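[[Per-residue structure]]
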Amino acid sequence: MKELTGMEKYIVVNLTSLRVSYYEDDALITEYSVGIGKTDTPTPPGTYQVIEKLVFEQLAAIDLGSRRLVLSSAKTCLHGSWNGPVEGYVSGGCVRMYNQDIEELFEKVEIGTPVIMIS
């Protein structure tokens, strides 16, 4: 991932291993197990940016968990889940995380943080 070298903070979503990796100054800080899109609603690979950070205090009509990182793609985002399932091919195209994991990641990233989704 030479194109990422020198970036201060970035997130890599590995759509094969179902892992989210968070980096600061090219050093791996933490990794999380995640769920991604089902076969008929796949999570799209590509390079995006965090454009908005949303907090939810309780379960709404759609389970986006306690936090949502909105990306520069209308087709995907990173969000938590109140009720799961989380790991596996379980979503409508978003990257689904445990609430405690998205809450931790949410505090680390800023608007503009790159998110690279690789197959």
Remarks:
- Residues 99-108 form the longest helix (10 residues).
- The mean pLDDT is 94.
- The chain has one helix and ten strands.
